[in-house]
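Annex B.
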Amino acid sequence: MKYWRSSSVFKHAKLITMNISIPKFIILTTLGCFFILSSSAQLNLAGRVVATIGQIEVVRFDGTHQAVIRRSDINVGDTIKTFSDSMVQLRFVDSGLVSLCSDSELKIVQYQYQGANSDRVELYLVKGKLRTITGEIKGEAYLLVVNGARISNRGTDYEVAIVGDEQAYVGVYTGGITITNELGEVNLGIGADYDFASLRKNFASVGSLLQPPDLGGTC
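FecR protein domain-containing protein: predicted structure tokens.
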């Protein structure tokens, strides 16, 4: 009789233990998955929206379209689109700033910032106009593609405007940049002969001392 009661108590205690352990296991597993997903999301985070005027849209990596508002996340693989009479300002994870003007489109190909040798920025201005103050990522680790040309920076405030299908203009206001395509390269800004340049597909970039009319002003 005593043995039976002892066995019953043991089974009851085991059942209580199981009832406590299973929820704890579920909670810990859920928390683990949450932290993994959070870490993954942080790795893909390129920046955030700090200001908007008018209608702004982001096309996510999976092809979904979403409206953009202040504090919206911008991730690697996203394409930001502005429309007539609209503009957006973005702050990236390395403290870089971009003002994307109306009727423009910017694709975030890559944006990795950990303060290490693996840091990398790759942006693609599909159309329109932007002005940017670059962040911590500089030199060959930074790349903006415009009309087939590649722009790298040396700590810079510069502007790019695509005009039509073949023509683009670049202007540097602080610091310096290097523009490279298959026909050569041109330096703009500090230590260079020019502050402005015109870019055409399949042509060498041409430096200029005069600001093109498509640059300057506000978005």
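The chain has a mean pLDDT of 85. The chain has one domain: 48-208. Further annotation is deferred to the next reporting cycle.
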